[in-house]
Amino acid sequence: EIHIKEPIKKEVNPHLLPGELLLCEASRVYKYVQEDGSNRGTYGKLVCTNFKIAFLDDDSTSDDNEPQFKNKIVGENDITLQCVDQIYGVYDEKKKLLTGQLRKYPEKLIIYCKDLRVFHFCLRYTKEEEVKRIVSGIIHHSQTSKLLKRLFLFSYASAAPNTTDRRDQTVMFDTLEDWRDELERTKGNVKYKAVTTNEGYKVSEKLPLYFVVPICVSEESILKYEGRGIPIWCWSCHNGAALLKMSAFPKEQDDIASQTQKAFLDGIYKTISKPPYELLKTDDLSSSLPSLQDIQTAYTRFKQLFLIDNSTDFWATDVKWFSLLESTNWLEIIRRVLKKAIEVAECLERQHTNVLLIEESATDLCCVISSLVQVMMDSYSRTKSGFQSLIQKEWVIGGHSFLDRCNHLHKSDKEEAPVFLLLLNCVWQLVQQYPPAFEFTETYLTVLSDSLYVPIFSTFFFNSQHQKDANTSGESLKTQSGPFRFLTVWDWSVQFDPKAQAFLNNPLYAEKPKPDKSQRKTARFKHQRQLSLPLTQTKSSTKRGFFREETDHLIKNILGKRIGKFIYPSDELPSGFREFYDSWHSKPVDYHGLLLPRIDGPEIKVWAQRYLRWIPEAQLHGGGTIATAAKILDLMEEVQNLQVKMDEEHSQATSGDVHSVPMLRNSARLSSLFPFALLHRQSVKPALPTSTWKDLEDEDDLVKRDDEFVYLSDDML
Questions:
Q1: Under 8 Å between Cβ of 452 and 406
Q2: What pLDDT shows up at residue 710?
Q3: Is-annotated flag, keyword Electron transport (predicted)?
Q4: Are residues 117 and 258 in the same domain?
Q5: Phi, psi of 285 (to 5 degrees)
Q6: Chain centre distance of CA 538
């Protein structure tokens, strides 16, 4: 049975941004609502522009039931061309990956997105010519390689007025003054200096215009090997120890070149190992952390767990969820990266030793580790403006190849790797373990990850500062001359109105350290244990649902005492690291001091909001962290209203602007998918095979609990 919503009769036109052009469209396209196979959905128009793919139905023009957390650039049924991951066609109920020229056009189109949305379109009722145009257009504009200047980024920059808001206090690190201010802030200006050697990019196009090196390093040394072999300053600890990074020399070289470079490095090491510098420890990340290829492979497997076509597929994976999650190796990579960051923090904090991170280009894993260390050790990096400044310093200006790693131009799959996404996953672990320590929320991290694929901001669409500068000059449609004026992603007003932006700020952020040390462990949000891997290798029981709360406290306690044996064999970790880790966790948490993530076993969790927000089956009605946030925000609003009344009584004057907080009345109506999706239908009740049902009957209380989730038809019984 097909539940059909009548085709729209009035003409619906897409909302086009400045510089956006309509390329092709198809009418009478049927968009499925992912339900239980009943093929329910709605008719509308499918369009493709030079910016996005969009589905327009009669609800697209209505302002009724508009979500509180609406993105002003990308709508609920919009997919930016850079956000398209893979496109499949359905031929006679068989899925086939669509690439290049097609001989036969599909009757159904399935689009998998990089933000893990899945769209199903039926083209059976669409005119044949329109099907050819729209399918060919979507594949061509979203999957084939393109030139940099063909990105919508340039069309938008040349057509849109630049009204960017620079009041956000984010430091861009594109001037010498920014680097000098950072040196002064971290007290690193005694031993390190900001240099202008690379002005005009005469040293290297991969290095930024300005960067910081030890005072003893000469300009000749920087110029000798195009910046390779030079320790570049990242951050200074309160005790004077510094975090440095270095671009390594190529490994495959002749003996004479290798000996010359080795002598050069020895000279550099000796220079910065003398007073006033601390001892130096080098760490080659290419040998101590997974390769970019390993990271890409793990994430590719991991994201498949969340690209769900329908309810049947969802519940089919539930039975083997633990083994599937473990086989991806994604959580293990997160744990290894966090462990490496703790090792570096231990050298800086306890051993007062400089740490030099080494990598081939020093723009991938170096960025991850240096950023994590600063988030853990510098409370400024846990504020919103501080974190944004950190991303600018280490990633944008630091030369991370966003264009290649995100594969925005579809040039080479070999270069693709979710390195920045790995950082956000690691930071999320800290945010969910220590909520009061961060000024921003997990929602902030989620929309930041989404912004990777929105090509109106220059932040994540260049490989280096040089590439951006080289492509900034161009013709503007407004002025007929002058450089492009790109937007920065840090101006959140471009994507969200003030009411929505309030979701990015943490109302529980601890402005000052609490003097009461009896508050050792703060109340933690309740997390689903199924978002982390169990500690044993035993087969996971089929009696536990995908999001069922584990209640066997005895087993938890027993396993908890054995965590160290499972995670850290006796020969894996030096005793100093374990001592440092255990010692810190035995003391009260200072939310403005050093933060060490818990990395043992199940403490490493799946980032539920990002990966499960589009899956109705995974929602908790009236639950999740959003229910807690709703109560807090309601309380904040009440306090603010009382403050306004008190001010009015005292001053006999009307109060000025009051910082707005989102209205989240009646949180029972919300689900854990909020604010990215409104309240969805109840989860489709799976029809379980008889054998599975018999397994469930082993525990009476579980049968009663799961009875509302399991539907057994008469013929099955």
A1: yes
A2: 39
A3: no
A4: no
A5: -70, -25
A6: 31
Q: Tell me, yes or no, whether 546 lies in a domain.
A: no
* Same domain, yes or no: 139 and 217: no
CB atoms within 10 A of CB 65: 7
Residue 6, domain member (yes or no): no
Same domain, 101 and 215: no
Same domain, yes or no, for 348 and 446?
yes
Residue 169 lies in a domain: no
Angle (CA) 430 433 439, round 5°: 65
190: which 2 tokens? 């005694």
Pair 265, 333 in one domain: yes
Which residues pair with residue 22 across a beta bridge? 49
Q: How far apart are CA 701 and CA 682, in angstroms?
A: 22
C-alpha–C-alpha distance, residues 345 and 154, integer Å:
41
Owner of token pair 């969340």: 306
Q: What are phi and psi of 332, to 5 degrees?
A: -65, -40
Q: What is the H or E stretch that residue 118 is in?
A: strand 118-122
Based on the domain organization, do 351 and 225 belong to the same domain? Answer: yes
Fill in the amino acid letter for 468. Answer: K
The answer to whether residues 408 and 151 touch, using CB atoms and an 8 Å cutoff, is yes
The model's pTM is 0.84
Residue (of 117, 55, 153) closest to 459 by Cα position: 153
- Looking at the domain assignment, is residue 401 inside a domain? yes
Any idea what the CATH number is for the domain that residue 28 is in? 2.30.29.30
Tell me the C-alpha distance between 690 and 686, whole Å. Answer: 12
Element (H, E) at 340: helix 330-349
- Residue 91: helix, strand or coil by DSSP? strand
Q: How far apart are CA 340 and CA 354, in angstroms?
A: 15
Give burial (CB, 10 Å; 0-12/13-18/19+) of 693: middle
Structure tokens at 550: 């584990």
Same structural domain, 354 and 415: yes
Splitting the chain (717 residues) into consecutive groups of 10 residues, what average pLDDT does each group show? 51 89 95 72 95 86 62 95 96 90 91 96 94 96 94 93 69 96 94 95 95 94 92 96 94 81 90 82 94 97 92 86 95 97 96 95 97 97 97 98 96 93 98 96 97 96 96 58 82 94 91 53 42 51 40 39 36 70 94 96 93 86 73 82 87 53 53 68 45 43 40 43
Region of residue 165 (left: phi > 0; alpha: psi -120 to 50; beta: else): beta
Cis peptide before 534 (omega within 30 of 0): no
* CA atoms of 491 and 520, how far apart (whole Å): 37
CB 278 within 8 A of CB 188: no
Q: Rounded to whole angstroms, what are the CA distances from 489 to 319, 391, 416, 459?
A: 40, 11, 22, 6
| Contact in structure between 299 and 330 (CB atoms under 8 Å) | yes
Q: How far apart, in Å, are the Cα atoms of 479 and each of 30, 273, 471, 484, 707?
A: 43, 54, 17, 10, 67
From residue 329, how far is each of 294, 336, 411, 618 by CA, in Å? 9, 11, 27, 22
Residue 314 φ then ψ, to 5° = -60, -50
Alpha helix ranges (H) inside 128-254: 128-143, 152-159, 176-185, 219-224
Burial label, 683 (beta-carbon count in 10 A; 0-12, 13-18, 19+): buried
| In a shared domain, residues 205 and 313 | yes
DSSP 473: B
- Residue 687 tokens read as 């029809």
Distance in angstroms (rounded) separating the CA atoms of residues 318 and 618: 11
- 357 contacts 244 by C-beta, under 8 angstroms: yes
**Could you tell me the residue range of the domain that residue 48 belongs to?**
22-144
Q: What is the dihedral of CA 569, 570, 574, 577, to 10 degrees?
A: 60
